[in-house]
Every structure is written in C-alpha cells, then in structure tokens.
Amino acid sequence: MSVLEVTSELYSEAEFCSTETGNGNSISKFTFVYPNRRDAAPAENGTQPGLANGMDKRYNGQPVADSESKASSVKDSEEVEEESCFEEESFASDYGDSLCEEEQEEVLLYGESGDECCIATHQKDTKPPPIVLDKDGDVVVVRQRKGAIDIEHRKSTRLDAVGLQIWRGALLLGDYIMHNERKFKNTHILELGSGVGLTSIVASMYAREVICTDIDIEGLLDLLRDNMQRNAHLSSPHCRVHVTELDFKVSYQDYPRDLKTKLQDVQYVIAADVIYDDDITEAFVRTIVSLLLELPKLKAIYIALEKRYVFTLEDMDSVAPCYDYFLRYFEKRNGRFGVNRWKLINVCMDFPRYFDYDKVKDLVLLKVCHASK
C-alpha cells in the first residue's frame, strides 16, 4: 500500500535558491526585506552610522543614542511598557473576513457583544516620507536592506510529518512579527509546532527568549536545532533560544518541570500551520487553553493558518473543514463553563509582505487573548 505524500504549495510559487543535502533534504534560502530599515547616509566624518544585527538603531522611526539603545536591549521584559489588546487589528461579528477600514473598528469576531476587549486601532500614515538630502544637496537614495534565512527542510512528506516542510503560514507569521517588532522586542516567546524553525528564527531577531517546540518525529528536533544554529547570526545578541519537545497530546501537568519553569515568563505564544487534522486540532486547542490558564504573563496567542477548501456533496458548497472545525472546537472549549473566557480575533491582513511568497486571500491570522483584559 503506497503512502500518500503532501507537498507545500510554497515551493511552486517562487524560485527559492536550494541545494540538495544528499539525505533527502534541501537547504533553501528565504530572502526578506528588513522592515523600516534603510541604508543610512554616511556621517560627515565618512563613517557609517552604528548598526546592530544589520539594522540601524531606531525607536519609533527616530535615531537612538548608543547608550539608550544598549539600555533598551538589556531591559527586562517586565519593565517594557505593559501592553493591552489594543493593536492594529480588525474584527467581524462572525467568523468572516477581517475588516480593514480607515476608521477605528470596535466589532468583535468572537465573544459577547459590547465587550471592549481588543479594540482595533487601524491607522494609516498619509504623510509621504521626507526627502533626505546630502551635504551637496543631492537626494539620498533609500535602499532596502535585505537578509536571508537558510532552512534545511523536506520538499514532500507524509501528512504526520508536515513539520519537516515550509508552509505559507510560517512566512505570514514572520511578516507579522517583523511589522510589529516593537511589540515583540525583549519579550519571551513560545512557538508551538515550530517545524524547521523559520518563524522562531524571525522571533529570535527581536525577543529576549524563544522556546521552540514540536514533536520529535523523523529527526525533526535535531533539524530544528541545526536551523536555529545555522541562522544564529540573525538573532538578537541578547536572545536565548531553547529547543525542546512539546506534544499537543500531552497535558500541561505532565510537562517536564524545567519546561514549566521556562513557560512562566512567556508573554506571547505563536503557531503556524498546525490546523490540518481534527485530532491534532483538538489537542492543539486543549494545549492553548491550558497555556491561557497556567501562564501568568501570557498576553496573546497568534495563530497563522491557511483555509483549504474542498467541495462536499453534504454541503453542496466549497468549505474549509479544518478551519471550521477549529472554530467550533475552540468555541466549545471556551464556553464550557457558561461564559466566554477568551476572545478570538481576526487580525487585519494589510501589514506588508517582507518574505517572497504569495500572500493568498485564504491565509488567516488569529489572535486569542483573555476576555477580562
């Protein structure tokens, strides 16, 4: 009996520079553009302005003195300005498409009507960027700074080993983290279902600590460790990276003690492309519910996924069964005690694309946060 293999659509969308490793894997280069980072004009003394991790030191678009930058980089995450659920997000009254209106939106995707948790503040800067001139009066040409992440991965796998591949959701989540670098700077991040590590690598560019987790199947954790090490030059010098096993089907109470200790500092949980099987979806929802209950500093969970449609005779329509099942099961777990304890929010998708991939309309980014905030 032949084993059904699946292949990520990503590989047919762009010509990734890949080399074969000889063990059935490939090493591909995923290029990206640094957000809001440009090559600065040389100073009057001919020297280049100071750079940190390939990025000029700026805060909210303004240059920061070296002493301030260093102080900011070592500031503990508890001292960072406390963040609520006010973000660049939009909501819908049901599980529909996100809203991207010019004005502020205060509509809920999931939860009781009238609750003010997680109000969107979608604002667009209409001012054109200022023209910068050098000392001779010539216009300084703005150049985008580019980088690349080298990932060893498979190009096809069985369904139970899809973590060995790269999927669109990982790049979408990477885009979101880059676009919101101030939010994730110096924070503690846990990734569920890290796969081969692309999103964790992006997170490590800004975070104080990244905990990369997945199941150990076909050498996945060793491959994850290798990829994190391969791209360590991109990480913040103050970031600690841990790779450990975390199986959705294992309850929080049975986690190793050292893992539970590390999780106490986690502020954000991220996950990409983990919704593809009903059993795994149920285990994933139980996992995020446990984390929402057990992690005292957890602010939000971000879940990137792609709705994959199929036509069914039962519905006589094209439906996204895995996505729909996730929503139903989350609603069931959320309201099991007669009250909705968490909000499920559809994040507005109008943030820029920094990686080279097709940002298809079926990509979704969801946020889960406490309803009481």
Automatic annotation (TrEMBL):
Query: GO cellular-component terms in the record?
Result: nucleus
Q: Domain of life here?
A: Eukaryota
Entry-linked Pfam families: Methyltransf_16
Compositional bias, Basic and acidic residues, is annotated for 67-77
- Residue ranges annotated as compositionally biased, kind Acidic residues, are 78-87
Q: Which InterPro entries match?
A: Methyltransf_16 (IPR019410), METTL22 (IPR038899), SAM-dependent_MTases_sf (IPR029063)
Region Disordered, annotated ranges? 39-87
The protein's GO terms of the molecular function aspect are:
protein methyltransferase activity
Mind telling me which Gene3D superfamilies this protein's record contains? Vaccinia Virus protein VP39
Could you tell me what this protein is called?
A: Methyltransferase-like protein 22
Lineage of the native species? Answer: Eukaryota, Metazoa, Ecdysozoa, Arthropoda, Hexapoda
